[in-house]
Amino acid sequence: MANAVVQAQNSVGGSATWLNIETGGKYNREDTTNGTTNIIPLPAAAGTNFSWIKSMVLSVTTGGTTSISNRRISNSAATATGITVYWKALAVSSYAQAAAGNMPTASGSNGAIPAGYTAVTTSTAQYDNTSVSTAATGPTGSMVVICLGVDNTYAGGANNAAAMPTLLLGYDEA
Predict the structure, then answer these.
(1) How many distinct structural domains can be found in the chain?
(2) Which structural domain, as residue segments, surrounds residue 103?
(3) Would you say 138 and 93 are in contact if contact means Cβ atoms under 8 Å apart?
(4) What value, to the nearest 5°, has the Cα angle with vertex 87 and ends 137 and 101?
(5) Is the pTM of this model over 0.90?
(6) φ and ψ at 153, to 5 degrees?
(7) Among 55, 140, 58, 141, which Cα is nearest to 102's?
């Protein structure tokens, strides 16, 4: 049995072109991986503002003779008070370019959860258990769409360099 080489990737732009995100990324309000121009505004009163979405996949870069299943997401540590990462699973064919029109709607409540999303925690959550062969390269299974929520209890203030735990994407290969 030959294991595949798998990489965490995200896409920017109008069509899904998957790029390595393993060296890190930034939550923002722009269609970039690491942009710092359009930061998420800190609410002045009770409320939660959200980043634009980030679409991520686990992608086979070198084929193998195995299958991948049990795709999971978690944070390496707890986020700061007032900051939460959210996720939802979608088919890769549902890819949509990050834009203001598909950003979760701001809420007047602290700690608001965007419709259809689940909070990422330090506990592992499965987002796709479909078994997919690693013989072909490219995305395996569902993509996980993420966004960041910031509410006015966040003490770090408005900035583009807030420390975040590492977002972990895992899988089983057999």
Answers:
(1) 1
(2) 5-173
(3) no
(4) 95
(5) yes
(6) -85, -5
(7) 55
